[in-house]
């Protein structure tokens, strides 16, 4: 299963490495949005169950992975920039569905708030609009390592926190990848995390009112950084949303063990291929109505 590789020009500003997994039997196309510090390789397990049911589009942000050689990377880009890139790729590949992972959910939801006409449904995984104590502690420690471009300690931090439930082999891959990033990638993530922690530039909940399509939020049962209960605050701000919890899984869901992979597959395919009439709209939980915006 080899993808078609292309470098897509976005408004003459960015060059984006893309991978297109075409399926002769698929009638719909889905685009996957990476989390922070990640590349297309992070979705290797996800592609296995999305293809060949769908055509699948993966891409690296301009500062990351195989997009890096095509861009100057002289300055960090914003989440708004990432949302504009995503919107362009949606048009370029004629995308029907969207799925994001972790901090990729910020750019994904900013893009969805613009109501791209092609997108019918979206899946937002391992994301929370709340910064709880565990996440703030993780981000604040990460800021120190990012500022120092200390990739080795940053890799250990990721594996000991959000990656604590990953198999040892994946942790080794994770550490090797994070510890060998270019300096501009650490600068990029420092700028983003610093904005989030200090609330200098964040997505106000009000902007989410623009999202009119069905959205499924998927979180791991044991994910203390983006826990399932916290994401349900979004019922106050989205007109049609659903929630799913992957049993015995942490932040990385389908990468952690076979049962989580199988449940992730069933949940995502059930939502994307299901009839809209059967989709449930969840009502707000009273104890979560005081949520902080991210």
UniProtKB/TrEMBL annotation:
<dbReference type="Pfam" id="PF00561">
    <property type="entry name" value="Abhydrolase_1"/>
</dbReference>
<dbReference type="InterPro" id="IPR000073">
    <property type="entry name" value="AB_hydrolase_1"/>
</dbReference>
<dbReference type="GO" id="GO:0016787">
    <property type="term" value="F:hydrolase activity"/>
</dbReference>
<dbReference type="InterPro" id="IPR050228">
    <property type="entry name" value="Carboxylesterase_BioH"/>
</dbReference>
<feature type="domain" description="AB hydrolase-1">
    <location>
        <begin position="29"/>
        <end position="257"/>
    </location>
</feature>
<keyword id="KW-0378">Hydrolase</keyword>
<protein>
    <submittedName>
        <fullName>Alpha/beta fold hydrolase</fullName>
    </submittedName>
</protein>
<dbReference type="InterPro" id="IPR029058">
    <property type="entry name" value="AB_hydrolase_fold"/>
</dbReference>
């Amino acid at each position: 299963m080899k993808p078609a590789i292309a470098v897509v020009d976005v408004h003459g500003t960015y060059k984006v490495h893309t991978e297109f997994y075409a399926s002769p039997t698929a009638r719909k196309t889905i685009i996957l949005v990476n989390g922070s510090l990640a590349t297309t390789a992070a979705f290797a397990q996800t592609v296995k169950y999305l293809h060949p049911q769908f055509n699948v589009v993966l891409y690296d942000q301009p500062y990351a992975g195989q997009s890096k050689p095509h861009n100057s990377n002289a300055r960090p880009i914003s989440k708004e920039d990432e949302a504009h890139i995503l919107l362009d790729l949606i048009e370029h590949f004629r995308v029907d569905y969207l799925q994001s992972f972790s901090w990729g959910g910020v750019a994904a939801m900013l893009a969805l708030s613009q109501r791209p006409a092609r997108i019918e449904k979206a899946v937002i995984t391992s994301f929370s609009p709340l910064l709880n104590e565990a996440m703030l502690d993780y981000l604040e420690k990460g800021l120190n390592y990012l500022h120092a471009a200390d990739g080795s300690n940053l890799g250990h931090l990721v594996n000991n926190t959000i990656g604590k439930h990953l198999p040892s082999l994946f942790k080794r891959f994770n550490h090797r990848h994070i510890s060998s990033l270019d300096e501009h990638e650490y600068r990029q993530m420092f700028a983003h995390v610093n904005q989030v922690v200090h609330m200098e530039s964040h997505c106000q909940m009000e902007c989410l009112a623009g999202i009119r399509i069905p959205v499924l939020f998927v979180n791991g049962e044991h994910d203390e950084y983006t826990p399932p209960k916290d994401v349900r605050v979004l019922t106050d701000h989205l007109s049609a949303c659903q929630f799913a919890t992957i049993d015995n899984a942490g932040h990385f869901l389908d990468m952690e063990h076979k049962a989580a992979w199988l449940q992730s597959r069933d949940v995502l395919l059930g939502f994307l291929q299901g009839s809209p009439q059967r989709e449930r709209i969840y009502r707000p939980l009273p104890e979560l109505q005081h949520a902080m915006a991210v």
